[in-house]
Amino acid sequence: MPKKKRIRIQALSSFSNVIDDPSRFKGTWNERVFQNDHPITLEVGCGKGEYSLALARRFPERNFIGIDLKGARLFIAAQNALDLQADNIVFVRIHAEKIADVFSKNEVEEIWIPFPDPYPKKARKRLTSTKYIQLYRQILKSDAGIHLKTDDEQLFRFTIETCKHENCIIHEMIPDLYQQGLSDELLHIQTTYEKRHLDEGKKIKYVWFSV
In the beta sheet, which residues pair with residue 90? Predict the structure, then answer.
């Protein structure tokens, strides 16, 4: 492991907005972490936290949690949030498949999944696979929304088919956001990955559904 990455991962424990042992807060995130009763939005696979941090700045009346397994990326996310004095967002270093160990039923009101790894040869690992849909059901409120943004055509179609198979409600699906026009200002938020994909001429796709 490169020295810089190792230093960043080790430094995570010193950040006030990075939660150690998140399972101890299961069912009590509002009371013990945020100390309010605001709705919680979760970004799964948050990377550098660009999407969740942008949302947190726009919606100070909501709480945001970014989760990712890669500590070096979370270091950047946490540092940026501290620099911007965003006190309604925290970060957790866990694998997405552990979310049911960290959150209780009805504890999360919304999930964003911007530009996840499409896993072209490992469908089960995709963050919109049946495995994950079933995990989301364990932590989401009944009318909660899940938002996927991707440049990957296979993942886009896979998500739609999985939603149908799992009897999810698809509220909106857009195969080319920038051709159709962005109806929601939240879709204007662009991560580093999205900007790169747009520069490469790729189409950005969006699905909003509930489980």
Answer: 65
Q: What does the pLDDT profile of the chain (211 residues) look like in tens digits?
A: 566 666 566 667 778 899 989 999 999 999 999 999 999 999 999 999 999 999 999 999 999 999 999 888 899 999 999 999 999 999 999 999 999 999 999 999 999 999 999 999 999 999 999 999 999 999 999 889 999 999 999 999 999 999 999 999 999 999 998 887 666 778 888 888 888 888 999 999 999 999 9
Gap between the Cα atoms of 203 and 31, Å rounded = 41
Residue-range domain boundaries for the chain:
3-18+30-210
User: Fold for domain 3-18+30-210?
Assistant: Rossmann fold (3.40.50)
Q: Which residues are catalytic?
A: 117
Q: How far apart are CA 20 and CA 15, in angstroms?
A: 10
Buried b (16+ CB within 10 A) or exposed e, 150-176: bbbeebbebbbebbeebebeeeebbee
